[in-house]
């Protein structure tokens, strides 16, 4: 997050920062921001565009929490520089619902309890959207592979896997989920 | 409270959480999502030394940096604090000494984080480096180097010795006696959200702190003490926590510091810890060395148990006194133990302070005990599940250490996992490399005592009903992802006969909500649930009285469900909830009621008897099946069966979510997670190198709910947030033995330990027990058993 310290930064941090006017297309809307060029996409989204739905867990590219989509591909926004992403198509969790109607992934996550604390959820949702957009009928292993870069400490991942399968099933009609003998719960 | 209704309309249904849509749309505001006009950003300067005396601090150059608004040192915050009244040993910023790498020394408020960070680097601190004590052994050996100047002697923070009945007599009666030594490594919570806090001290002299804390009430008390402000002038709002697991349960340096910086600058001040700093804030699982000596009859009945624990506490007290007592408290509540002796010690070391992590002080002894029992069962030629099954504690009995048992679902839990896993066809029968293990456990449903001594309720709830039929439930409880907000809504909706979505919950705000002690000790569902029932039933009585008058139906025939109040015997005769609310307000005036809950008093009168009592214990059993690669030591967990005595599942979906999350966290501890240090420095303070399970390591899981309808719980409910972690770790160790025939009496059971043990086995050497630290325990307090 913070660039390596230089004498210039130490002595006059406000004067010597190089800023640039950057045009970003986020969730279909175009924004112009005048920000230091080293500011990460994560920071610009949260601090300059008030899109606080994108969270951060390490700011070092290790946990996947800050994942957003750039031209449909998952990208760690804590490692991405806006100046390199001008006019690209950026999607955050705020862009998943359309005119207030939630994406099937969001509905499935809510219904199955796949969001406990909900902090890793935005990153996982957009990563899952990218998967389903490219592979509408993923196998369980393909879902695990696609989400392996996103850590979650609450759910044990089970409900998330079930929710992605459920959303995929709903989005593709008659396709059957693999669920059967894993992640099962039974009442008393 | 555990009263059975003919049929519930809300309780027991797999409803979505009240905050689910906000969480999946990114609407939920966590602490770092907040921003206020004119807000400044704070950073902490932390100690680079594990142990050093502070000789001087020069803040001049930092203060001169453009953009810096305030620089703070410990001199401005001299009053010590800590979560427990007996260990008020923390300073917001260290004044004389630093005690671990990462101990906060100074703080800066500046226009942005970068400026604050640059200013921190300009602060000159002169240290005199002291010897770093990085292990229990070192800390005990160097009595001349004291990390703190309190505690019985040397670096011992707390020591305990209790004897319930004559254990020597019990060992003499045993057919078989065995001793084992275990080591359970420390691990950290690793919540996905980094701790954040925002403080605003207004021109009216009032202070507000928004924080990612599990315990706003205790933070409130700490702020009043350290800042020397009346508690009535401080408001603490806990935001939904992005994961807690116990790691956000202490009042923290950064929370106090932003308050003070806001008071100094007259501007809001925010801080968000970096991930590396979260590893230093820690308060995670204590590394514990454990020793068990148990005598059993031929049939596997325990005649006596002697247990010792040695806790590596880290640099400060935190919850440590409670953690120490918890290591010794709950051995007796699963299988009958007629004589029991507990000796334990918590030692200060120069590492980030340990505290409560999911299971608080009980996973370490439970793991050791369940492996120890597995060895005893083998020596006796008994099936380990059968041996446990035969000697369960009895419901409504009293243990030898004077703990009151409520309902006990452990037997059914064991039966269910044994049956579902096909245990009998697998145990000791799977091919080499494949194994299966079993374990049982118990946990508290809320601590019987509060953290500071008082006679007040542990949980308070206030409900108001407005004339539009709007229902608001106010409670100090804090949603850390477990669904405590939803539980309030479910219970209020059940009682008032409306739907959870009709209810607004207002939580975790010390100005607006009655005190709830916090999201710790698995207390929230039971305590807030009972308080909510009490408040809602007062209002229901008013609604029924008004509705009954209108309908001409006697009070006791009325029922509330599906947004109606109606005649039980003639459901057609009824009125809508909104109409009932209007009638009741006309009759009684403004509608509002409060409810509160205080747990029953514990039985024990001895020192230390405060840790262990609870309204009721939850029980769990786990079977783990896994594959060990004998070449690499690499373990693949194939499937986990987990049965849990939940009392009553208020929402089975959320209960299963807690089970799956606990199983996952247990597997992380069992196989890979370690908060480890080298030369005074945390080896791996990053999410990449601190190994935790990912989607790829996710095994199959089967969750089985056992309902025992405990009279102490709301609708019979017990806890589920923590207890289910406990049996999984020893079940893994027992399964490893079943798979490859070597005992790993250590957590995590990492591949190198397995390879080493297999190598030792090939060379005919036993993988010997570890060594115990050298401690002379005090003479035990002898407590005569009064129980059954």
Order of helices and strands of chain A: HEEHEEEHHHHE
Measured between the Cα atoms of the first and last residue of chain B, the distance is 26 Å
The assigned structural class of chain A equals: alpha+beta
The total count of strands of chain B amounts to: 30
Largest sheet properties of chain B: 7 strands, mixed
Discrete helix count of chain A? 6
Largest sheet of chain A: 5 strands, mixed
Instruction: Give the oligomeric state.
Output: heterodimer
**For the record, what CATH class of the largest domain in chain A applies?**
Alpha Beta
CATH homologous superfamily annotation of the largest domain in chain B: Aldehyde oxidase/xanthine dehydrogenase, molybdopterin binding domain
Strand order of the largest sheet of chain B: 3-5-1-12-9-10-11
CATH class of the largest domain in chain B: Alpha Beta
Helix content of chain A: 25-40%
Q: What is the 3D form of chain B?
A: globular
Helix content of chain B: 25-40%
Give a count of the beta strands of chain A, DSSP E runs of length 2 or more. 6
Terminus-to-terminus distance of chain A = 49 Å
Binned strand content of chain B: 15-25%
Q: Which segments of chain A are poorly predicted (pLDDT under 50) over 5 or more consecutive residues?
A: 1-13, 179-188
Question: What can you tell me about this protein's structure?
Answer:
The complex is a heterodimer of chains A (188) and B (788). Chain A is built from six helices and six strands; from the N terminus they run H-E-E-H-E-E-E-H-H-H-H-E. With 188 residues, chain A is an alpha+beta fold. Chain A has two domains: 17-95, Ubiquitin-like (UB roll), CATH 3.10.20.30; 104-171, DNA polymerase, domain 1, CATH 1.10.150. In chain A, strand 1 and strand 2 form a beta hairpin. Chain A starts with 6 loop residues before the first helix and ends with a strand. Mean pLDDT of chain A is 88; it is low at 1-13 and 179-188. With 788 residues, chain B is an alpha+beta fold. Chain B folds into three domains: 39-130 and 189-281, Aldehyde Oxidoreductase, domain 3 (Alpha-Beta Complex), CATH 3.90.1170; 160-187 and 284-448 and 605-762, Aldehyde oxidase/xanthine dehydrogenase, molybdopterin binding domain (Aldehyde Oxidoreductase, domain 4, 2-Layer Sandwich), CATH 3.30.365; 457-597, Aldehyde oxidase/xanthine dehydrogenase, molybdopterin binding domain (Aldehyde Oxidoreductase, domain 4). Chain B has 19 helices and 30 strands. In chain B, the strands form seven sheets. A seven-stranded mixed beta sheet of chain B has the order 3-5-1-12-9-10-11, sandwiched between helices. In chain B, a hairpin with a 2-residue loop joins strand 20 (558-561) and strand 21. In chain B, helix 10 (363-380) runs parallel beside helix 18, helix 15 (524-551) packs across helix 16 (577-588) and helix 17 packs across helix 18. Chain B is globular, with a radius of gyration of 27 Å. Strand 6 (184-186) of chain A pairs parallel with strand 28 (700-706) of chain B, so a sheet runs across the interface.
């Amino acid at each position: 997050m913070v660039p390596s310290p230089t004498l210039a930064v130490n002595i006059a941090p406000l004067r010597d920062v190089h800023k640039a006017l950057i045009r970003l297309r986020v969730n279909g809307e175009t924004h112009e921001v005048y920000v230091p060029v080293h500011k990460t996409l994560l920071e610009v989204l949260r601090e300059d565009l008030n899109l606080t739905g994108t969270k951060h867990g390490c700011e070092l590219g290790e946990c996947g929490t800050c994942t957003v989509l750039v031209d449909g591909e998952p990208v760690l926004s804590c490692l991405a520089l806006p100046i390199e992403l001008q006019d690209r198509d950026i999607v955050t969790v705020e862009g998943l619902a359309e005119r207030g109607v939630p994406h099937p992934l969001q509905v499935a996550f809510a219904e199955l309890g796949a969001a406990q604390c909900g902090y890793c959820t935005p990153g996982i949702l957009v990563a899952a959207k990218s998967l389903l957009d490219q592979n509408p009928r993923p196998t369980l292993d393909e879902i695990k592979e696609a989400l392996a870069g996103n850590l979650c400490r609450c759910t044990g991942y089970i409900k998330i896997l079930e929710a992605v399968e459920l959303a995929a099933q709903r989005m593709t009609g008659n396709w059957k989920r693999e669920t059967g003998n894993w992640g099962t719960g039974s009442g008393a | 409270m555990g009263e059975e209704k003919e049929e519930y309309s809300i309780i027991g249904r797999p409803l979505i959480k009240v905050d689910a849509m906000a969480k999946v749309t990114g609407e939920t505001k966590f602490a770092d999502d907040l921003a206020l006009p004119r807000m400044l950003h704070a950073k902490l300067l932390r100690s680079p030394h594990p142990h050093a005396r502070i000789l001087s601090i020069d803040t001049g150059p930092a203060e001169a940096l453009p953009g810096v608004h305030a620089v703070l040192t410990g001199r401005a915050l001299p009053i010590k604090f800590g979560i427990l009244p007996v260990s008020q040993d923390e300073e917001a910023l260290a004044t004389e000494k630093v005690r671990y790498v990462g101990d906060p020394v100074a703080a800066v408020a500046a226009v942005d984080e970068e400026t604050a960070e640059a200013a921190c680097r300009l602060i000159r601190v002169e240290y005199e480096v002291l010897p770093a004590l990085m292990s229990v052994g070192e800390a005990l050996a160097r009595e001349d180097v004291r990390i703190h100047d309190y505690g019985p002697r040397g670096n011992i923070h707390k020591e305990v010795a209790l004897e319930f009945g004559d254990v020597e007599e019990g060992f003499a009666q045993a057919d078989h006696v065995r001793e084992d030594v275990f080591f359970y490594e420390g691990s950290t919570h690793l919540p996905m959200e980094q701790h954040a806090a925002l403080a605003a001290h207004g021109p009216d002299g009032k202070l507000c702190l928004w924080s990612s804390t599990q315990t706003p009430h205790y933070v409130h008390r700490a702020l009043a003490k350290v800042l020397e402000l009346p508690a009535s002038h401080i408001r603490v709002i806990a935001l939904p926590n992005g994961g807690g697991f116990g790691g956000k349960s202490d009042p923290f340096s950064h929370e106090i510091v932003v308050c003070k910086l806001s008071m100094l600058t007259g501007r809001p001040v925010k801080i968000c810890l970096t991930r590396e700093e979260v590893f230093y804030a820690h308060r995670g699982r204590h590394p514990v060395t454990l020793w068990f000596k148990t005598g059993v009859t031929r049939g596997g009945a325990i005649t006596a148990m002697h247990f010792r624990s040695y806790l590596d506490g880290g640099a400060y007290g935190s919850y440590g006194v409670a953690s120490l007592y918890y290591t010794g408290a709950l051995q007796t509540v699963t299988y009958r133990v007629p004589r029991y002796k507990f000796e334990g010690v918590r030692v200060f070391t120069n590492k980030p302070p340990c505290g409560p992590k999911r299971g608080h002080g009980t996973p370490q002894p439970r793991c050791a005990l369940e492996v120890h029992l597995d060895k005893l069962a083998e020596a006796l030629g008994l099936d380990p599940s059968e041996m446990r099954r035969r000697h369960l504690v009895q419901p409504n009995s009293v243990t030898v250490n004077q703990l009151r048992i409520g309902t006990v679902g452990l037997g059914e839990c064991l039966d269910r996992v044994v049956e579902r896993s096909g245990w009998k066809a697998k145990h000791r029968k799977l091919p080499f490399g494949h194994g299966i293990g079993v374990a049982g456990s118990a946990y508290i449903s809320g601590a019987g005592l509060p953290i500071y001594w008082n006679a007040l309720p542990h949980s308070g709830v206030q409900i108001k009903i407005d004339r539009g039929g709007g229902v608001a439930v106010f409670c100090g409880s804090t949603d850390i992802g477990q669904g405590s907000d939803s539980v309030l809504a479910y219970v209020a909706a059940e009682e008032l006969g409306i739907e959870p979505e009709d209810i607004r919950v207002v939580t975790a705000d010390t100005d607006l909500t009655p005190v709830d002690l916090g999201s710790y000790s698995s207390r929230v569902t039971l305590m807030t649930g009972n308080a909510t029932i009490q408040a809602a039933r007062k209002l229901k009585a008013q609604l029924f009285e008004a509705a009954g008058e209108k309908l001409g139906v006697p009070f006791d025939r009325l029922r509330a469900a599906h947004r109606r109040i109606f005649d039980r015997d003639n459901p057609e005769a009824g009125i809508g909830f909104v109409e009932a609310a209007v009638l009741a307000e006309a009759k009684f005036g403004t509608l509002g009621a409060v409810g509160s809950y205080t747990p029953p008093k514990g039985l024990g009168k001895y020192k230390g008897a405060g840790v262990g009592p609870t309204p009721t214990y939850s029980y769990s059993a786990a079977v783990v099946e896994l594959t060990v690669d004998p070449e690499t030591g690499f373990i693949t967990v194939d499937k986990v069966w987990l049965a849990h005595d939940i009392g009553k599942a208020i929402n089975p979906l959320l209960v299963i979510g807690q089970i799956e999350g606990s199983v996952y966290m247990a597997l992380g501890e069992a196989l890979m997670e370690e908060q480890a240090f080298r030369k005074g420095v945390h080896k791996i303070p990053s999410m990449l190198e601190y190994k935790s399970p990912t989607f790829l390591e996710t095994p199959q899981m089967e969750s089985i709910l056992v309902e025992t309808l405990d009279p102490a719980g709301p609708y019979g409910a017990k806890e589920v947030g923590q207890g289910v972690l406990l049996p999984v770790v020893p079940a893994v160790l027992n399964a490893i033995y079943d798979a490859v025939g070597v005992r790993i009496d250590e957590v995590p059971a990492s591949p190198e330990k397995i390879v080493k043990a297999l190598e030792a086995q090939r060379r005919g050497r036993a993988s010997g027990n570890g060594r115990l630290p050298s401690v002379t325990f005090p003479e035990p307090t002898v407590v005569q058993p009064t129980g059954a």
